[in-house]
Amino acid sequence: MIHARNLPFITTLAIFVIAYALCVLQFPNMLSTRVIGNLLTDNAFLGIAAVGMTFVILSSGIDLSVGSVIAFTSVFVAVMVGSFGVHPLTAFIAALVISTLFGCLMGAMIRYLLIPPFVVTLAGMFLARGAAYLVSTESVPITHEFIDAMMGFYIRFPGGGRLTLLAMIMLAVFIAGIFIASRTRFGANVYAIGGNIQSAELMGVPVGSTTIRIYALSGFLSGLAGIVYTLYTSSGYSLATVGVELDAIAAVVIGGTLLTGGVGLIAGTFVGILLQGLIQTYIVFDGTLSSWWTKIVIGILLFVFIVLQRTIIWYSNRQLAVRQLKEV
Amino acid sequence: MSAQHALLEARGIGKSFFGIPALDEVDFTLGRGEIHALLGENGAGKSTLIKILTGVYRRDRGTIALDGNEVSPEDVGQAQALGIGTVYQEVNLLENLTVAENLFLGRQPRRFGMIDRRAMREQSKALLARYGLNIDVDALLASYSVAIRQLIAIARAVDLSGKVLVLDEPTASLDANEVKGLFSVLRQLREEGLGIVIITHFLDQVYEIADRVTVLRNGRLVGSRALSELPRLELISMMLGRELQHITREHQAEPETVDERGAPSIRFQNYGKKGSVAPFDLDIRPGEVVGVAGLLGSGRTETAFLLFGIDRADSGTATIDGAQANISSPEAAIASGFGFCPEERKTDGIVGDLSVADNIVLALQASRGWMRPISSAQKRELADAFIKSLDIRPADRERPIKFLSGGNQQKAILARWLVTEPRLLILDEPTRGIDIGAHAEILKMIERLCSEGMSLIVISSELEELTAVAHRVVVLSDRRHVAELSGSQLTTDAIIEAIAGTGRTEAA
Predict the structure, then answer these.
(1) Through-space distance between the first and last CA atoms of chain A, rounded to whole angstroms
(2) Mean pLDDT in chain B?
(3) DSSP string spanning B30-95?
(4) Domain boundaries, chain B
(5) I want to staple A121 with a disulfide (CB 3.0 to 4.6 A). Which of A64, B129, B301, B329 is the partner?
(6) Structural domain tally of chain A?
(7) How far is B90 from chain A (nearest CA, A)?
(8) Contact B108, A191 (CB under 8 A)
């Protein structure tokens, strides 16, 4: 059964399929597995961060620290491995622990000091960015045989495309995210808090621990995105990934999640990421368009989706009102 | 432990907020298989008591025993686990989830650590079938009517808790048929031995469904009685705080002197709004205090909203000094010289973070428009004058108003309207939640204002206050103006009888 709340997701999916079909009509090569493989790899770090962002937005919160945390983790890992010779795996674990604790702390401040998420994560954004500068202001290259082995691992598609380890990590994160959101009590609690925090509390949802876990999850996934970004660029740079949180928010909203919380799907965010990747790929294929067209199209899509969501809410409220009038 | 224990027994419950007592030494006893109505006006302490019993608030004093064992629920979850479930009137279930998700939130059936959606669906269907509901449990809650949502909430609460069910205004938005359906469910639950607490302001429904009633007033216990031996008249006087004895009017304004004030200057004729208040006539003379009496939900506040243009009347006319007036918005009402002090001072009245002076000049500034700001010298002057004349304490015009006591906040709101020199001031529950001293001062102020020629409408659930201060009292019941009392008819007994009289004829 199609709920009205899933309509934005279905619309996004339809837009993606149509857009892809149009692209393929113009450039038949865009259907190749090579293009698809690259699309997944290029957007792996963004996709991972967007999964965390989806949970945050579903709970009617926001996490502005994502881009800074990615930059911090990438510089941190690069310096640990490059300058101090730590084994990459150790550096990864340390980075994940730090980013998760950072998320925990922000969640606790939001819940217990009752500071709006926007403000807390804005502070977190500056803090993480500053910490990244503190580690190094240079672009730090990273080489290690373990990392080479990781980057050398891929599954070959028929047609020459590669499903890289980075793309696999992103897909695994999406699959795990879909299960957590739809099949665990934690996921149900996230939707409940996003729907109405007072009701959720009165129904016995542990709002405090759930809020902390939501931001811890977002912190963890930002850290993981940072690691993937480090592997992707083979370096760490504290000025990188500025504004990535906004790209992630755009993917979440285009994927049909309501910014007011409580309604949305992780799978929608995946389509949102693919749609952004598709636009970038099209611009590369076209060759004459400026890369700014990506931003312009994303901006237009966002407008369209926000209007669409408003219309759906307005329409379903009206339906409800009409039905209740009939009952009277 | 003998089996003689009551199901739920609260003794000497006390609770204060910021030093102001909301509940004082309240006892409450609920038996098995009993439907117990909890009654009282706004601010009587009903919801505070309920929130303490259900773990939302923690009590300052007293004991609660469930099945003879002392309990101290720390949060809603604990109270639910102990067996006390609640269905609130408004904030209740989650509209963005499906029916099944709502029923099993926080206790979903799981297989291998994952929510088992199929089992959840089956169990939801089985659960709702017990209440005669056969609906699609995978549809969003938002797609169902309030009545069905209520049954879903009850099903959840009973399934979750199973000993005590608390219902806060369950019938407020139901029609007659839906109420009937709800009551048959409640009777079925009573048969099963559940203790049910119901808060409502519909007295007919109390007599129809409840076995016992406990009445609170001003945070204190008035009494707890079996309904079979409690006449309606006595119940109303318990709620409104007057024993049935004749008292004479205490104020000096004689009816004759009022008539001498001449013809009414403000007249509302056949004024009303569907679903809010039935059409009524109301004449107001200069210098007159018109009281409005009625139980909670009788249309008191709705009348004020109509008169001040917050709700638009859909019938009737308003005339001021013989000329027709169109009071379609609060701005229009202010332009016609009206002022309104709302009942919910904290949410609708004060702007907590602004200073006393800013709060006082707010309405004057609004009536002048933002193009003509009040100079700060003028603001200081006005604020100081009213702080002095109304004796607002502390006499510090720059202090944020939220730090003042309730009585002083109320005075500052009064000052806000007095600055605009209104001809008609509407006061909704002007003395609620303020201490005795400030209470008397505000009553004195009302008398002084009307002696200066201002007309006032005073809405109050304190009957003694009305009879003391008003020249005339309009009595409301069931959203209709049912009586108008003045002169020697104006006694608390007459008001109670007017309220009860209509209730009785309707019940019959």
Answers:
(1) 28
(2) 82
(3) E-TT-EEEEE--TTSSHHHHHHHHTTSS--SEEEEEETTEE----SHHHHHHHTEEEE-SSS-S-T
(4) 8-96+140-230, 263-337+424-508, 345-421
(5) A64
(6) 1
(7) 9
(8) no
* Tens of pLDDT, residues A201-227: 888 888 999 999 999 999 999 999 999
Buried b (16+ CB within 10 A) or exposed e, A256-289: bbbeebbbbbbbbbbbbbbbbbbbbbbbeeeeee
pLDDT at B91: 53
**CATH number for domain B263-337+424-508, candidates 3.40.50.300, 3.40.1390.10, 1.20.1640.10, 3.30.1330.60:** 3.40.50.300
Tokens of B446: 């009302």
| CB contacts < 8 A (A, B) | 85
- Which CATH fold topology does B8-96+140-230 show? Rossmann fold (3.40.50)
B92 vs chain A: nearest CA distance in angstroms? Answer: 5
CA of A117 to nearest chain B CA: how many angstroms apart? 21
Indicate which of A2, A60, A182, A183 best probes the interface with B, i.e. most B CBs within 10 Å of its own CB. Answer: A183
- What's the rounded Cα separation, in Å, for the pair A65 and A120? 9
Complex ipTM above 0.90? no
In whole angstroms, what is the distance from residue B295 CA to residue B272 CA?
19
Tell me, letter by letter, the H, E, C secondary structure of B8-42: EEEEEEEEEECCEEEEEEEEEEECCCCEEEEECCC
> What residues of chain A score a pLDDT lower than 50?
1
Closest Cα partner for A188 from B78, B125, B140, B106?
A: B106
The domain containing residue A289 runs over which residues?
4-327
Mutation target to probe the A interface, by most A beta carbons within 10 A, among B78, B105, B116, B161 is B105
Q: Do A320 and B142 touch (CB under 8 A)?
A: yes
Report the Cα–Cα distance between both ends of chain B, in Å, rounded. Answer: 45
Q: Is A326 on the interface with B (CB under 8 A)?
A: no
CA torsion, ordered B472, B442, B311, B147, to nearest 10 deg: -100
Using 50, 70 and 90 to split pLDDT, how confident is the model at B346? low
